[in-house]
Amino acid sequence: MSRVKVGDEVVVISGKDRGKRGKIIKKLPREDRIMVEGVNVVKRHVRPTRRGQASGIVEGEALIHASKVMLICSRCGKRARMGIKTLKKEGRLRFCKKCGEVID
Ligand SMILES: [Zn+2]
């Protein structure tokens, strides 16, 4: 199971975009696939859907596998190994194993 979610700041750890940082802008619920701002940008050919609209090539992010990214801790600013702890009130929370900061 993936521990990242939309809005998380992550860094890419493998592939052509290795080292890039960005925010998760989309996540497919059942697959571990995510879309990260500025990462895995591909060119797509588009056809006009309305009259007058230009066809051409647009650039946009494509999905990547969630295992290719690591969360960046907002406190220590480093790629962080996440732990999960369960609290009575808040339920399951993610925290940074380095500095203990709760992410959620
Ligand atoms: Zn941290």
Question: Could you characterize the architecture of this molecule?
Answer:
It is a single chain. This protein is mostly beta strands. The chain has a single domain (9-96), classed as SH3 type barrels, CATH 2.30.30. Helices cover 0% and strands 42% of the residues. The strands form three sheets. It has a five-stranded antiparallel sheet with strand order 6-3-2-1-7, with no helix packed on it. Strands 4-5 form a two-stranded antiparallel sheet. The radius of gyration is 17 Å and the shape is elongated. The chain binds zinc ion. One of its GO terms (molecular function) is rRNA binding. Pfam families: KOW (PF00467), ribosomal_L24 (PF17136). It comes from Aerophobetes bacterium.
| Molecules bound to protein | zinc ion
End-to-end separation in angstroms reads 17 Å
What is the total number of structural domains? 1
Count of alpha and pi helical runs: 0
Which class best fits the helix and strand makeup?
mainly beta
Radius of gyration: 17 Å
The chain-level mean pLDDT equals 90
Order of helices and strands: EEEEEEEEE
How much of the residues is beta strand, in percent?
35-45%
Q: Which spans have pLDDT < 50 for at least 5 consecutive residues? A: none
Q: Biggest β-sheet, characterized?
A: 5 strands, antiparallel
Q: CATH topology, what is it called?
A: SH3 type barrels
Q: Summarize the amount of helix as a percent range.
A: under 10%
Q: Give the overall shape, derived from the CA principal axes.
A: elongated
CATH class: Mainly Beta
Topology, number of strands:
9
